Automatic annotation (TrEMBL):
GO terms for molecular function: ATP binding; ATP hydrolysis activity. Keywords: ATP-binding, Nucleotide-binding. InterPro entries: ABC_transporter-like_ATP-bd (IPR003439), ABCF_ATPase (IPR051309), P-loop_NTPase (IPR027417). The keyword Nucleotide-binding applies. The keyword Nucleotide-binding applies. This is ABC transporter, ATP-binding protein.
Amino acid sequence: LERLERLEVEEEDLATLNIKFPPAPRSGQIVAEINEAGMSFGSKHVFSGANFTIEKGDRIAFVGRNGEGKTTLARMLVGQLTPTEGSIRIGANVNIGYYAQNQDDLMDGEFTVYDTLDRVAVGDIRTRLRDILGAFLFRGEDIDKKVKVLSGGERARLAMARMMLEPRNLLVL
């Protein structure tokens, strides 16, 4: 014990960040209706008979094994894919935010971290971008880095921060 070096532990940062994100439009009670929806890619049948309604305030999860269509169903819900059978109807005033599995790859690598958020920020939130980036662990010179040099985790954090700045009332993660 005498030979052990005593380490000083830094105090935990208990600072909080209060951000008022842009309000999303108020959606109707029915957010989405999925009626007997199914999807095939050529001869590969992914799923069929999806039948459910998402109402305002609902929180749902798609659960299943790999290859059973969870991502396909999410992409259908956000309009990236059209069902090959059945239908999907999005309700009134629904503004969808989608955090795709490859979300971090969808950002322009030539923009800086700061510019990536500045492009989507509206109103008073623009004056707080440095604070918001700090809350997502981008500090100091990090905000001037180009997106293309960020690690995968850094790009994922930036993509989440960007999505939070846009007024959304349906999040698909």
